[in-house]
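Sequence in, structure out. Go.
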Amino acid sequence: MELSFLQKDACIAIGLMSGTSADGIDAAVVELRGCGTDTRVRQLGFITLPFSDEARQKILQVAGGAPLDSREICLLNFYLGGLSADACLEACRAAGIQPGDVDFVGSHGQTIWHEPAGADYLGRKVRATLQIGEPSLIAERLGCPGAVRWRTRWLLTPVRATWSSMHWPRG
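Output:
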């Protein structure tokens, strides 16, 4: 797929978020215009797709450090990717647009472990975070060029505190 939306005056994006409360996935459809400090955002639609009680309990179990094998983590990754795609499709309906109108999706993913201060591991200090919810599944179901999880990159960048305080109000 090509990134032709980079040549457009405006693009359509979906932002996904599921938090540590594990109550569901929020999906916002927005139109983006401009660049940098001149960027303008207009919300076109918003939905929350609640998790089932069973899914919520599994997420909280995993995030709480319960021992799981790689098979179960893999299955949960794709399960949450499918739910994220469902949330995107529902958000498109709420916004009155077709999935093919979406240029890209940004997804936080579901955090199952977060070690931002770092831990001693195999003789090294390792900072790590793990979010699941397979983004390739989201992109494939929507037919858009890509879906990305940005939390990992955020952890690795030295300006994360400044960027976070600019874009996420406290309180």
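Check: The CA atoms of residues 111 and 146 lie 20 Å apart. The two ends are 40 Å apart (CA to CA).
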